[in-house]
Amino acid sequence: MHKMWWKILGSVLVLYATIAGFLATVPELPILHETIRNLYFHVPMWFAMIVLFSISVFYSIKVLRSNNPLDDIKAVESVNTGIVFGILGIVTGSVWAKFTWGQAWSFDVKQNFAAIALLLYFAYLVLRNAIDEEQKRAKISAIYNIFAYPMMVVLLFVLPRLQDSLHPGNGGNPGFNSYDLDSRMRMVFYPACLGWIIIGYWIYTLLFRLRSIDKNSAL
Amino acid sequence: MKKISTTLLLVLAAVQLFAQTATAPDSLYASDKIYVVVICAGIILLGLIIFLFSIDRRLKKIEKKSSGKI
Fold this sequence. Notes:
Largest sheet of chain A: none
Radius of gyration of chain B: 21 Å
Oligomer: heterodimer
Number of domains of chain A: 1
Radius of gyration of chain A: 19 Å
Shape of chain A: globular
CATH topology of chain A: Four Helix Bundle (Hemerythrin (Met), subunit A)
Strand content of chain B: under 5%
Structural class of chain B: mainly alpha
Structural class of chain A: mainly alpha
Number of strands of chain A: 0
Distance between the termini of chain A: 31 Å
């Protein structure tokens, strides 16, 4: 029980954010109307993905120094979990776009670059599977991951800002927080982000434990 | 426990205040049927979380077994 407190915290936060996400009042906005509630569901997916990819790059750097195969497993399993959250983010994003921008995929820069960022991490997994020797695989994929991470950050947060985009916070559009993320929404939005990050981390630990048992039994 | 549950119930009574908006709400909210959706989404999420806890427990059992073997 003493080690479980953060799992319970994450569960409670996510449940709270979902229920309050439907029921709490939101500011009235043009075009968006009630779909602004998607902010509590769509955005935390991306935050969880970024935290998981950050964990991955941390262990990729570590594995280069330690040569510990467990660090390599940590790096790959956090990418596996992060990709799931990224796919959920991009799918919820296009559903939201369908009803506010008119098209599910309008080839908006933010959408395109988000898709490319995900492809970068698909390539990471493909690269891993292409190398049979364990030590070599750990090293090469760690180096790839260290390059992929800043690319992902640039694709998601820098390049969309330099061009015209419909996405809030990009292409001269202000982010939600500057004019309509009022304090009522913050009360739901921040717990939602924290909760989903914790749930994402939890799933990553499950996958890591599973893989390390698998490795132990193979020895 | 009784005190806590009564407090919780009284706190929940205030939730109804959120429903009173000054302007006309969107159609989804106008009929008050949104609560049905909230209950469903909450049940699904709760179910998934309980599932996650059960996977965690099963994994812990296997971990214990495999650590005893080595």
